[in-house]
Amino acid sequence: MTFIILIKPRNCLIEPKTEKMKSSLYLGQVAKIKVFIHWTFLLLIGYIVYSGVSAGQTLEEICWHILFILTIFFCIVLHEFGHALMGRRFGFKTKDIILLPIGGVARFEKLPEKPQQEFLVAIAGPMVNFAIALILYVTTSSDLADIMNQRPVNLVNAESFLTLLWMVNLTLGVFNLIPAFPMDGGRIFRAFLSIFQPREKATKIAAAVGFLVAIAFIFMGLFYNPFLIIMGAFIILAASSESNMVSTQALLEGHTAGEIVMRSFATLDQNLTIAEASEAILDGQASNFTITTDADRIIGTLKREQVIQALANSESHKKPVTSIMDPVNQTITADTPLKDLYTNELIRTNTMIPVTYQGMVIGVINFENIMEFLAIKQATPLWKNLLQKNRST
Ligand SMILES: [Zn+2]
């Protein structure tokens, strides 16, 4: 099974630990896309060895099985590259590809919303498996019927290797077309639905169908293959996470950075020392500051924690705050859609970003602002009316 997923931006509480990839081994980089393998992959190899030994297989047979699994995963990497490279054609970047025991995941920074693009990005993966299957089918000479008749069935060896591999690729292609959102088939299904429905509703329907399929997987897994249980659980988690994300995007739709800009915020003069900055922290409630020049230009941002950390070193007390601030290199314009900002790396990595209107800084914005906006909007069903009233007055 393979997946395309969206990297979830952090919310105020949870740091994106998954993005550090500590639990995964870096395999290499192809076409500027990093490929990782998750440590739990070792469990899969362990499972093959264990089941081989308990079935009385020889060392040679077990090695053939391991080689076979590794080759399948190589095909899965190619499948993910199918998604990634098709995505790139439309300008959507893939951050990385991770191999898990249940399959591969291509993590996109942003996913296509146009039904046609979403369809092409989703179908590109299974098409890679169909292409591999076709090439192997044409080039291998051994007969599938002979291999299916051998005992035990699916025994991997030099003769059966390529024939079984084309079968697996065919199966992978077909399996991924099952409409269990966010599996490829589910994305194709959503792309189809979003021709007639708003994207949010299309996602809800696709996720609901995906949920039913996932339950069926879990149920079948109890009797046949325990991997199906893990897959089912993964589908449910990934589907609900993406469904929430789409709902969030729908809430942000039509709103801009200018609507949530913080016009009053704490500033520190660039000439202050770190010791003086600590007094400012004690004076007020602010935990984030902008560093400004004498001409009120914002040149950096500073968190309370950075000041406290610097105070631990007695030598740095007299140093200027500019020595520990995060310099501000970019600004955003007031008309930037909140929807784009929510998934933007810039707002995730910066304490605060100045917002400009017609070239003038009108305030600052940070990720917490967006989260607050969402909380308020969710709690206010009549939001639109309220906002319009406030604006007209
Ligand atoms: Zn796929």
Tell me what the structure shows.
The structure is a single chain. The protein is α/β, with parallel strands linked by helices and 393 residues long. It has three domains: 2-177, no CATH class; 183-253, no CATH class; 257-392, CBS-domain (Roll). It has helices at 41-54, 59-89, 115-139, 144-149, 161-175, 184-196, 199-223, 226-252, 257-260, 274-283, 304-311, 338-342, 345-349, 367-379, 383-392; strands at residues 2-6, 24-30, 33-38, 94-100, 103-108, 267-269, 288-292, 298-303, 326-327, 332-333, 353-357, 360-365. Strand 2 and strand 3 (33-38) form a beta hairpin. Helix 1 runs antiparallel to helix 2 (59-89), helix 3 (115-139) packs antiparallel against helix 6 (184-196) and helix 7 packs antiparallel against helix 8. The longest helix is centred in the N-terminal third of the chain and has 31 residues, at 59-89. It is elongated. Residues 8-20 have low confidence and may be disordered. The structure holds zinc ion. Zinc ion (ZN) binds at residues 2, 4, 79, 83, 125, 176, 184.
Topology:
Layout lengths: L1 E5 L17 E7 L2 E6 L2 H14 L4 H31 L4 E7 L2 E6 L6 H25 L4 H6 L11 H15 L8 H13 L2 H25 L2 H27 L4 H4 L6 E3 L4 H10 L4 E5 L5 E6 H8 L14 E2 L4 E2 L4 H5 L2 H5 L3 E5 L2 E6 L1 H13 L3 H10 L1
Parallel strand pairs: 1-5, 3-4, 6-7, 10-11
Antiparallel strand pairs: 2-3, 4-5, 7-8, 8-9, 11-12
Helix pairs in contact: 1-2, 2-3, 2-5, 3-5, 3-6, 6-7, 7-8, 10-11
Zinc ion (ZN) binds next to strand 1 and helix 2.
Low-confidence stretches: 8-20
When the domains are counted, the total is 3
Major sheet strand order: 1-5-4-3-2
Number of strands: 12
| Structural class by sheet pairing and helices | alpha/beta
Integer-rounded radius of gyration: 26 Å
| Overall outline | elongated
Tally of helical segments: 15
Q: Which small compounds were modeled alongside the protein?
A: zinc ion
Give the biggest sheet: 5 strands, mixed
Strand fraction: 15-25%
Helix content: 40-55%
Please report the distance between the alpha carbons of the first and last residues: 55 Å
Give the overall pLDDT as a whole number: 80
Q: What's the SSE pattern?
A: EEEHHEEHHHHHHHEHEEHEEHHEEHH
